[in-house]
Amino acid sequence: MKISDTHLKDVKVIEPVVFGDARGYFMESYNRRRYFEMGIGAAFVQDNLSFSVQDTLRGLHYQLPHAQAKLVQVLQGEVFDVAVDIRRASPTFGKWTGVVLSSENQRQLFIPEGFAHGFCLLSKTALFMYKCSDYYHPECEGGILWCDPDIGIDWPVERPLLSEKDAKYPRLGEVPDERLPVYDRELHTQSRKP
């Protein structure tokens, strides 16, 4: 397994080892001990699966309280996956990173708590799976407008298919402070142990 940093320090790209032959392939998609040793200590409690069609854009979503770290991957198809740092006082507040995830490259993206998440399809359809570190709490849902010009995400889709809710989220600068997570400098300077 190879883990690479993105330009947002805590967001990681994971490339599992894939063993392939004439029959197909095998890969270990998650191993808590191995991921923990590589610095991903989230305890996942819920798995979600979504199916989407071409030009669908989902996001940018988060929960507060009950923040969720996510480990995301594509089982079929291809998506452009995005994480945005929305932690007040973070050195990278309002910055984003994007990664192409597909059933061919088998990459995963780890998105820690305190980040908004979204993705858009690059293929005709996609099966998208993600592990969450807390349960879904509808009353804690939050979101940022996918096309917020202050964030400036370079989405590879011109006219996305959006849910009514996603189309109406506020810009990051319009979200009240109490509805945003806070960057914890102490947490980021401590060493983490399993």
Question: Topology, please?
Answer:
Blueprint lengths: L1 E4 L6 E4 L2 E4 L2 E4 L4 H6 L8 E8 L3 E7 L6 E7 L1 E8 L10 E7 L5 E4 L3 E7 L3 E8 L8 E3 L20 H4 L17 H5 L5
Antiparallel strand pairs: 1-2, 2-10, 3-4, 5-12, 6-11, 6-13, 7-10, 7-12, 8-9, 8-11
Number of strands: 13
Order of helices and strands: EEEEHEEEEEEEEEHH
Q: Which CATH first-tier class would you pick? A: Mainly Beta
On the 0-100 scale, what is the average pLDDT? 93
Broad shape: globular
User: What's the name of the CATH homologous superfamily?
Assistant: Jelly Rolls
Pick out the low-confidence regions. 189-194
Largest pleated sheet:
6 strands, antiparallel
CATH fold name, please? Jelly Rolls
Description of the structure:
- The protein has 194 residues and is mainly beta.
- The chain has helices spanning 32-37, 164-167, 185-189; strands at 2-5, 12-15, 18-21, 24-27, 46-53, 57-63, 70-76, 78-85, 96-102, 108-111, 115-121, 125-132, 141-143.
- The two termini are 18 Å apart.
- The protein has one domain (2-177): Jelly Rolls (Sandwich), CATH 2.60.120.
- The protein has a six-stranded antiparallel β-sheet, with no helix packed on it. The protein has a five-stranded antiparallel β-sheet with strand order 9-8-11-6-13, with no helix packed on it. It has a two-stranded antiparallel ribbon with strand order 3-4.
- The chain has three helices and 13 strands, in the order E-E-E-E-H-E-E-E-E-E-E-E-E-E-H-H.
